[in-house]
Amino acid sequence: MNKLLKTIVFDNEITLSVLDTTDMVNEAIRIHNLTPLAAAALGRTLTVCTFMSSNLKNQSDKLSVTIKGDGVGGKITVCGNGQLEMRGFIDNPQADLPLRADGKLNVGGCVGKNGRLTVVRSMGLKEPYSGSSELITGEIAEDFTAYYAFSEQQPTAMALGVKIGKDGTCVGAGGVIVQALPGASDNSLFLAEQIVRDCSAVSTLIEEHGAEWIVNELFFTDKYDEYHPQYKCHCSREYIEKVLISLGKEQLEDIIKKEGNIRVDCEFCDKVYEFDDSDVQRFFK
Description:
The protein is of the alpha+beta class.
């Protein structure tokens, strides 16, 4: 079961979020048939975006994140909402590279160092909030830490990890994210950042001990709020029909004439929706 544990530590000066997203990453692997490298890149992004979605004020608020670098994986897109229903995809699900010198997956090479990270929050206002920053390493954690520093002026430290077993499934995925509250002391900041650095192998900690152990043993508290995010796509035939109707009858009939039918693939869940001329006539009755 996916978990997000949230609390405040170090004299109420630091917010702490610990995530176990192992099941979510396995669902993404199943849907998109991801290589271990693609799973690591998309999985880390799903993890940090789950944390970001948990900070939306309303359940109906929405979050959209894109990472567009120059790596072999292409663009990564992840969406979520205030109910922690997450979904995402990577342009090249079969991305592959040799392991790094330390034996770890080369996520930085998959994402690339040249590019941008963009965050869009839709909160029921006329204009959504949008923020962006340049990629730093392509390793995801450093890139989001920089985003928080430059776009939101929020001191943040995080460790993200995805561990893939020999059979291609995820055996451990998650993250540890700390953020300073206003007035936080230098000592609290130092302690929090030091513990996050010690969590560099966070996927192994999740695999062997679990999210609760990290909160209890590393941050010395057993008081936290627990949430259960999930991978969930919101596409449906009815939704796709509304999108098609917005294109107009003439354009749809032109597609039918050229292609024989209309085929729509959902990038988030890989479902395929097909419509023929009788569907188009029904749309505009």
